[in-house]
Design a protein that fits this description.
single chain; 101 residues; mainly beta; 5-stranded antiparallel beta sheet
Length: 101
């Protein structure tokens, strides 16, 4: 949430991780945020965050990961994810290979 005249924030999270095979770990998480207390109402709103991840271990020190997340907000007119575009939802993708030395 962005600064404004709202003075109260609440966050709820639930998530699960599961080791499908010795090499493959999966995870999913959901976050729900609420911002309130704005006298004008412009900064009051809600946000939903969804995250799904997979991690595959090639060895004890090398793994590949892939993640997708989606964020959406609703409510007050002052709440946007990007002030330039005015976007109120966004999806991101992360992928990579990690090696621990």
């Amino acid at each position: 949430f962005q600064p404004g005249d709202a003075d109260k924030r609440q966050l709820f999270k639930v998530g699960v991780g599961y080791q499908l095979t010795p090499q493959l770990n999966l995870g999913a998480h959901y976050f729900r945020g609420k911002q309130s207390g704005s006298a004008s109402g412009a900064s009051n709103g809600k946000a939903n965050f969804y995250v799904a991840v997979a991690d595959y271990a090639f060895s004890k020190r090398t793994d590949a990961y892939f993640g997708v997340d989606h964020t959406s907000i609703s409510g007050g007119t002052a709440l946007v994810l990007d002030t330039a575009s005015g976007a109120r939802s966004r999806t991101g993708i992360t992928a990579g290979i990690r090696h621990r030395f």
